[in-house]
Amino acid sequence: MRINKARQVSAVLAVGALALTAACSSGGASGGGGGSDSGKKATVTNFGVGTKADSTGPAPAVDGAKNGGTAYSLDQAGFDYLDPGQQYVSDQLSVQLLYNRSLTGYKIDPKTGKTIVVGDLATDSGTPSDGSKTWTYTLKDGVKFEDGTPITTKDIKYGIERLFSDYETQGPQYVQKWLYGADYRKQYAGPYDGKEIPDAKISTPDDKTIVFHFLAPHADTPYAMAMPNISPVPKAKDDKQKYNNHPVSTGPYKIESYQPGKSLTFVRNTNWDPKTDPIRNAYPDKWQFQLGIAEPGLTNRLSADTGTDKFAINMSGSADPSKMQTLTSDPQYKGRTVNEYQPYVEVFNLNTKRITNPKVRQALAYAFPMSQVQQAFGGGAQGDLGTTLLSPTVAGWKKFDPFGKLAKPMGDPEKSLQLLKDAGVTTPYKISLAYANTPRWDTVTLTIQKALEKAGFKVERKAIDPTSYYTVVGKVDTPYDMYRTGWGADWPNGSTVVPPTMDGRNLQDGTNNYSFLNDPKVNSEIDRINQITDLTQQAAAWEQLSEYVLQTDTSQIPFIFDKYFNLYGSGLGGVTYNQVYGTINPNSIFVKQ
Amino acid sequence: MFRFLVRRVLGAMVILLLISMITYFLFFALPSDPALLSCGKQCDPQNVALIRKNLGLNLPIWTQYWHYMVGIFAGRHMPVGDCPAPCFGYSFANQQPVWGTIADSYPTTLTLAVGGAATFLTIGVSLGLISAWRQGTVFDRIASATSLLGQSVQIYFIGPLAILLFSTKLGWLDRGHDVDWAHDAWGSVTGMILPCLVLSVIFWSNYSRQTRSLMVEQLSEDHIRAARAKGMSSRYVFLRYALRGAMATIITIFGVDLSAVLGGAIITEVTFGLHGLGLLSVQAVLRSDLPLEMAVMLIGATLIVVCNIVVDLAYAFIDPRIRLA
Amino acid sequence: MSTLSQTAAGPVAGPASSFLSVRDLYVHFATEDGTVKAVDGLSFDLERGSTLGIVGESGSGKSVTNLAILGLHNPLNTKIQGEILLDGQELTGASERQLNRLRGKKMAMIFQDSLAALSPFYTVGRQIAEPFMKHTGASRREARARAVDMLRKVGIPQPDLRVDDYPHQFSGGMRQRAMIAMALVCDPDLVIADEPTTALDVTVQAQILDLLKDLQQETGAAIIIITHDLGVIAKTADQVMVMYAGRCVERGTVKEVMQRPQHPYSWGLLSSVPRLDSSVDTPLVPIPGAPPSLLSPPPGCPFHPRCGFTDLVAGGVCATTRPELPEGERRGSACHLTATQKEAVFIEQIHPRLR
Fold it and tell me: E strands of A76-192, at which residues?
């Protein structure tokens, strides 16, 4: 899962409640209010792994683009972390593209949106050996830090070593765990006591080459290496937590000034060579981030399109729900609207420890009033009807609708009643439905209650304080049957969705398997698919497994694919979208002159 | 006077201590877990335990509280780095030093509070005085109606409207932005005009009504008639006698209002996108950011307590019947 | 029922050159319920150096009359008709500026409740000095010296220290003295004392009245004392005017009114006051009923609903015709009883009760 903090904060502020829809585990889709199904048809993207040629700079020119000008980004929250080692959530993913280069990165075709993973600092997306357990990367020539020092593989290894120290708690842990296992911090405690990661794990035979030796095969490696934390950090500049406020740039821009929570200004990094970079055009001379701009003021500014707001964009946050009606219906905004899928799938978890009969869970899936909930969510522009556990931003995604939700989006009470009868349970079947106590969820759950009670259920709604919602529903012995969470893939492969949410081994409080599904068949399938070394085959296998879980176990009811919807200033061009991050792609943006 | 101050300051410290305790312990009484709120994606038990340790949440609550309070006066060494006094710790959410964050935000809040308070006091009291002077006239009625209107509107309603009208459409005033007195003094002034005006609207109506009724009440006092019987002009009597009598109450209300806006005008700041104490407090609560919450709460409480003492002093200064002891 | 157009009480044939001359004074207040006729055709004269006592119940128009002389009514809701001549100067039509020059300088007022009438926010000295500075153009220092002088004159001990005290630091009697000092600081020719001793205890009352008399002898000012206390009148006044429902119902010298009162209302007033020398067995006789509403005064004699002697007047005239004061006479009463009847009733029925 990836957090879309901006949308959370916006939702909470919008309802005026001083409470947070907990940072841990919530997806986005906090839109709501106006807006109907008038959103644009979002693209279902092709994903792939790029070749060495794809990895060669410079990035293909954008039509009509020129260098120069200042681009503005308005952000509802601020950036909690600029240290690439700590970055994970969507707003951070989008901003780090300006100053941070990882071993690999996503190259997006501005016309088709096709997204491929290519070498960024590295010459390609990685060379596997030893059955995909060993991965070798070679650095490009001419890649430098902002002070002109050439980047070496030692700097990248050091950047990874930092991730093991105890303050680095925020970033992804894929590579660390692949190297050492789940208790990686116990085996290596970071570089600050003078110890390095041994060559048996990561070796740097020369300044250009870095070799990773994983415990198991990982076909996903090209994606994992695109995470912001697989990037170089100069040892001399590393002051641990404080590095957060002045990360050293390897990308086209460097930080000129930073006031946390208020403003962040980037100017050109003259030591960045466009010829080394296949994914960044970097047209504007300057990027100015205005942080902590509250909604609906932010949306108002984007729609007013005056002054410097003509060159402004909201990289990761969707428009304020209260403005959706106007923004989707007024044609004047059409030319400067982005409306695309985010990686999040909104689901209602069905507690498999409590509702043990799968037929009952399936009855719930049939009865679920999907389109009513979508309306309460802000309509089609902020979320499509979602019928699969993987989102369309995941490679290998296929349309799949075992409960006929698209045909009967209002719910199918007859089918539900029939299933309950088949299950041999007494009706009405009692369900406790927990929700974060905000006006929106109050409305949504009321809608659900009405529909379910027509379909043989007796629903008891339980309001939970929003700040403790995820703690409460994440407990293994949670007393609730049904509760909503959101989940987003980290990269376009089911490997970042299926294992964390569906693996039933090691169930404990606070994991992301909120339905506590523990199906031996699923568990063993996860192990099998992880061994597949071909990414395309693997992606297809994850898709199949997720279909199986949905249809047979029905541990979750998916209902919305979140979508980004927002305007950008009329003075910007080349605005593209990064489906993997679920944010605007700043790389191709230019200031019209 | 000195005894009064000593007594009040000691009392204030007790109150602040109690507030700090209540805030701190109430925070932990909530079922939300700050470690879980700041674990991002990595909410597995190991990582949460690590974060808990990093944030110092693994210690007994009393110990945490003790460290926090000592830090305010003596500074602390924290895992995140040294934190010199006054140390309000590092934010749970983004690891920034809380004192620095507040110091960054405070000029904006202070400017908004002082500018807004000066505006609403001036407009409100002037309107009230004119209304009282011209009781029953058309001006009086219009002013009363306007006050009623001002009292019933909300900032989150008129704020965006004012931005749309005066900034976006007419372009007369700045949309409102943070102050930066050191680098852009003029911009700091122009950027605050609209927020100060909007903030003042909900307040001045109260002042004009209060001032008017206080003045009307004062004007019916015997000593007003006595002063007139001495041959003092009605204007003189109005300003020197009646206003003097009304002032004590106005200053009391003003003290309360000023301390409230000094603690951060939340809605105004949010509406105009200003980064002040009010916005910080919203963020702190939204994200269960205890150190920030504590700091904002303590600063707000301190301001209220200080303003109260100042009001009492002013009261004694205005009304010789009141003795400070 | 009298109306404004009627000249209700003819002018007294006093000398045209009276120091204060009030003629046909009407003071009407506009209220939400209607017009309150607080003063309804009043005439009297006052000479320099002499004291006029005005007696009557609350709401009889005593204070309103005097505020009208000072011009202190709110012009927005008050209608004043008639003429008030002070030393030959017309006051009813005078401008605010003219009045401001006269108030405090030529005419001054002593209020009933000194705690309320002194501003709590300024020192006694400042409040005394203020009109002096304004009217004489004295400097702050001179005015302060004058305030100390005045405080000494009214008998405040250590006046040079007390001058900087605030009113709340004074005792009730001292405050009243300070108030007198404030009124007299510019040596006014007319002093209006509105119940100057009501709030004080008896011994202090006597001191204050003595003080007023002494000061009058010194300056030769004319004094109007408003009171409902006949004892105060007996002690201080030369002339007496008994007011009822906004009108004068009886006038004369103190001796005349106190010893040979002619109006049933005056009889009632006298009967309801205890006397030190009267027997404890003599019952006090309160006036029955309540003062009339000034919004709609009763027709005829306004006192007739409370009067016990209306049967003595033939034809029920008391309930239909308003009795007038005899024109041009210094001594007189507004009552339909004949002079003989008045004399007879007083001697036979009232006088014995007063013993």
Answer: 104-108, 115-119, 127-129, 134-138
pLDDT 10s digits, A477-513: 999 999 999 888 999 999 999 998 999 997 888 788 9
Q: Is the dihedral of CA C338, C339, C340, C343 positive or negative?
A: positive
C93-112 residues touching B, CB cutoff 8 A = 96, 100-105, 108-109, 111
Cα first-last separation, chain A = 39
C233 is written with which tokens? 């009148």
- Nearest one of A332, A333, A349 to A484, comparing CA atoms: A349
What integer is the mean pLDDT of B170-199? 82
Residues in chain B closer than 8 A to C118 (CB atoms): 223, 226
Average pLDDT, chain A: 88
User: What residues of chain A, 475 to 514, have a C-beta less than 8 Å from chain B?
Assistant: 490, 508-512
Could you check whether the bond before residue A222 is cis, i.e. omega within 30 degrees of 0?
no
pLDDT of residue B316: 83
Residue of chain B whose Cα is closest to the Cα of A17:
B286
Contacts of B221 in chain C (CB under 8 A): 116
Alpha helices in A424-534 (DSSP H): 439-453, 469-473, 498-502, 520-530
pLDDT over 70 (residue C328): yes
Answer yes or no: are the C-beta atoms of C55 and C243 closer than 8 Å.
yes
Quick check: A294 contacting B, CB < 8 Å?
Answer: yes
Report the SS3 class of residue C278.
coil
Contact B279 A294 (CB under 8 A): yes
The pLDDT-based confidence of A305 (bands split at 50, 70, 90) is very high
**Band of pLDDT at residue A368, cut at 50, 70 and 90:** very high
The four Cα atoms A343, A347, A350, A351 give a dihedral, to 10 degrees, of 50
Maximal CA-CA distance, chain C: 69
Based on its alpha-carbon atoms, the radius of gyration of chain C, rounded to whole angstroms, reads 21
Considering only CA atoms, which of B307, B281, B275 is closest in space to residue B111? B275
Give the whole-angstrom CA distance, residue B96 versus residue B58. 20
* Cis peptide, bond prior to residue B79, ω within 30 of zero: no
Question: Whole-angstrom Cα distance, residue C322 to residue C6?
Answer: 11
Structure tokens at C100: 């401001």
Binary contact (A304, B164; C-beta < 8 A): yes
One-letter amino acid at B283 equals Q
Q: Cβ distance C71 to C94 under 8 Å?
A: yes
Tell me how crowded residue C16 is: count the other CB atoms within 10 A of its CB.
10
Q: Residues of C with CB below 8 A from B225's CB?
A: 67, 72, 111, 117
Write out residues 88-147 of A within 8 Å (CB-CB) of B.
Answer: 88-89
CA atoms within 13 A on the CB side of B234: 15
Q: Are B196 and B115 in contact, with CB atoms under 8 Å apart? A: yes
Please say if the pLDDT value at position B81 is more than 90.
Answer: no
Q: Picking from A198-202, A474-478, C1-5, which range would have the lowest pLDDT averaged per residue?
A: C1-5
Where on the phi/psi map is residue A29: left (φ > 0), alpha (ψ -120 to 50), or beta?
A: left
Cβ-based contacts of B220 with chain C (< 8 Å): none
Contacts of B279 in chain A (CB under 8 A): 292, 294
Whole-prediction pTM value?
0.78
Chain B, residues 167-226, CB within 8 A of chain A, namely 168, 175, 178
| Cα angle, residue A310 at apex, residues A308 and A314 outer, rounded to 5° | 95
**Contact yes or no for A24 and B164 at CB 8 A:** no
Q: Which residues of B touch A2 (CB under 8 A)?
A: 41
Residue A345 pLDDT > 80, yes or no? yes
Could you read off the pLDDT of A3-56 as tens digits, one per residue?
433 333 333 333 333 222 333 333 333 333 333 344 456 677 788 899 999 999
Over range B169-196, report the average pLDDT.
82
Chain B / chain C CB contacts < 8 angstroms: 80
